Amino acid sequence: MNTALIVDDSAVIRKVARRILETVNLKVSDAEDGETALALCNQTMPDVILLDWMMPKMDGYEFLTALRATPGGAHPKVLFCTTENDVGAIARALHGGADEYIMKPFDREILMTKLEQVGLPRERRAA
Question: Where is the signal peptide (predicted)?
Answer without folding.
Answer: none
